[in-house]
């Protein structure tokens, strides 16, 4: 495989999943980790990705201020967020994690909505602060440098004390057989606690994330109530999820 082709695959994986691991990329490409490490270093130098310990993250993942040009598939994520807003009601207690699609939802919340949002994500919390009628509660703990999200036992304990109406845990990998999954063990534990603390769970993300899975399961597909993508709800790609009882928006 030529370097250009290999790097295009790496870029696509980073754009879709926001965060990727060095060893996962090496296995997928059938090359050594040193080769992938050199590719990531070159892509970082070119400003295409941000190289971090053990892998890489997308340029749009670290957003201290809103910059839509750095968000992959931005138009799709706006559409997904608008669909998700139909699930938000006055007086709700909402759990929301990080990620660019959740960030888009936090940005587009109607100004008149009155609700309480709990989040372990720094970027999501900052975005929520722009809404005058939203009470924003940051769930603090040890911060993940790459994910910019609070993790660890303190976060899990705090989440166990919350009874939320709805949860948006963030979707990195989703598959009918393996459910919701991720590669970061501590992030997985945080998302598990979020789902356990909520009456309903919403998986939302671009359709490119469907039919993919990683090392650690967050929850079974049966534990998810709603699936939201940019696709029409009647799209054939969504049929297996509909057959599992998920409501498709």
Structural account:
This protein is of the alpha/beta class and 249 residues long. The protein has two domains: 3-58, Winged helix-like DNA-binding domain superfamily/Winged helix DNA-binding domain (Arc Repressor Mutant, subunit A, Orthogonal Bundle), CATH 1.10.10; 68-248, Rossmann fold. The chain has nine helices and 15 strands. The chain has helices at 3-17, 22-29, 33-45, 74-84, 100-108, 122-128, 153-159, 185-196, 239-243; strands spanning 19-21, 49-52, 55-58, 93-96, 115-119, 134-138, 142-144, 149-151, 164-168, 173-175, 179-182, 198-204, 216-219, 226-228, 247-248. A seven-stranded parallel sheet has the order 6-5-4-9-12-14-15, with helices on both faces. The chain has a three-stranded antiparallel sheet with strand order 1-3-2. Strands 10-11-13 form a three-stranded antiparallel sheet, covered by helices on one side. Helix 2 (22-29) packs across helix 3, helix 4 packs across helix 5 (100-108) and helix 7 (153-159) runs parallel beside helix 8 (185-196). The longest helix has 15 residues, at 3-17. The N and C termini lie far apart (39 Å).
How do the strands and helices of this protein lay out in sequence?
Layout: H1 3-17, E1 19-21, H2 22-29, H3 33-45, E2 49-52, E3 55-58, H4 74-84, E4 93-96, H5 100-108, E5 115-119, H6 122-128, E6 134-138, E7 142-144, E8 149-151, H7 153-159, E9 164-168, E10 173-175, E11 179-182, H8 185-196, E12 198-204, E13 216-219, E14 226-228, H9 239-243, E15 247-248
Helix pairs in contact: 2-3, 4-5, 5-6, 7-8
